[in-house]
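A favour between colleagues. Tell me how you read the following sequence-structure pair.

===
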Amino acid sequence: MPIKTIEFAIGGMTCTGCATGIAKQFVGKPGVIATDVSHPAGKGTFTYDGDVTSKEEIAATITASGHYQVTGEIAPGPAEGTATPIPEALTPATQASTAPRAGTTDRPASATPSAELAGHGPQGTFFDLVIVGGGSAAFAAALHANEQGLSTLVVNGGLPLGGTCVNVGCVPSKYLIRAAESFRHAGHSSFAGVQPGQPALDFAQVIREKRDLVNQLRGKKYEALLADLDHVRVVAGWAEFVDTRTIRVQGPDGKQTEYTGLKFIVATGAAPLIPAIAGLDQVPYFTSESLFEHEELPESLTIIGAGYIALEIAQAYQRFGSRVTVVQRSTHVLSNQTADVAEELTRHLRAEGMTILTGAAVEHVATDGPRVTVRVRGSGGTQEIVSTHLLLAAGTRPNTGTLGLEKVGVTLTPSGHVQVNAQLETSAANIYAVGDVTPNPAYVYAAAYEGKLAVQNAFAGAGRATDFTALPWVVFTDPQVAGVGLDERGAEAAGLPVEVRVLPLSEVPRNVAAKDTRGFIKLLRHADTDVLLGARIVAPEGGELVSPLTLALKGGLTVADLANTFYPYLTQSEGIKLAALSFNQDVAKLSCCAS
């Protein structure tokens, strides 16, 4: 075990508390044996195990808070007490001469102490942080790392910058959902005095406009931001780990380059799962990544899967005019939800003409040219579904297959996800993972939260754990399905005494006035303390109701608190109050605005 000691000149300390705060960052940090930080002397002495950590990591931890700067390394011997300043920048030639050898964390012996610290620059091949992936989680991590002055490399391959959400997921799907909704509303009315017209659809133009929106948002929210990130460099290519400190990146031109880093974050996301179905290799099919580029509206569309992605697409295309059939192996759609939620949504989707088969296993697919035949087996026997197009929407798989994670000691789950603890650490000490590549909830806002948290834990020793207790979610069908916190199954699994009330939207004045009473609001409370445990909503624009309930859950509010809060009359949020009142009153017998 090579025990080493390093002494840094540290700027930015204004009091003894600053010195104490710096020292606290190293409590429990692997490899750091002892620290001695002095405000009056403006320096810190660190004793460490060179096999576990390095002086570069120690310097990065000090600067990661943004309050302090390592201004130089104090040389031992006769010159002790004088710091060699760190140059503001190195020329490319100097950076190349001080770059680390592949698989090592120490600089060449010929490098000067000042060059060792300054060699982190974004034009070299050594970085404080290397992020593999270019989606929302990766960008959140890069933005926070840039704020902390950490030299950061982002390696992006596959989808363009922005990853799934902006390119093939959230943005294009929600655009198409709203376009389909507009088309349907133009041809349907719930009011006897309003006669709908016969709208015209240019589906190819819808897809082209979707494409323009994706390009616009990717440019504004991702590509344009790069110019302001002084400490971040982005390269295109596919990364593979060489060892725990090095990755090899193959660029689009086939050229391979090795990069070394102190810390790594794997943020490669997930891709559509291609299920093992007999005959599938002979049949053309879409996934959510390819369907949204097809400018011809399918005459008929069979969708395998009934999760949120499948159902959002199914309703949009049904409303555009496709004849849609959904095939689901589980007993109900949205198999991770309780039956009452799934059945309520299914009823309204079927009312729009969609065919939904549940408890149906796909046995075989085949094509005779213009048609695709899907053979399914259910409780009633075998049947064949014939359509012009096939969409696979049976889930996702993590993008871990080519990263070489196993050879550097990173544990994967049976599904191929990167196993992480609550601090987003993998089984390799300096490698973190965030976003859809992990088993954590697969939402873009959760991924962004994880990206920032991983940087804080990796460089500031924050030790912060992920907390998804009050994580809201929305399925953008119509009616929407939304939720936060526990449902009945979650409360039972946690051993909590729970009471549940379900308020039909026929009791909410806003919905009655709008002649749209599809759905309900369900609240769950702790039977002994009245504290809100969770909520499930099926409602038009129901996603707009979940945020106040999220704040209530996060703040530990009781159902009585919800009932005793003001809500504007004839807003849908008034339904939250009525649902809360229903624990103790029959709201059907209350007058308007009653408390």
The first strand starts at residue 3 and ends at 11. Residues 384 and 394 are 19 Å apart (CA to CA). The chain has four domains: 3-74, 126-161+223-271+398-460, 275-393, 472-587.
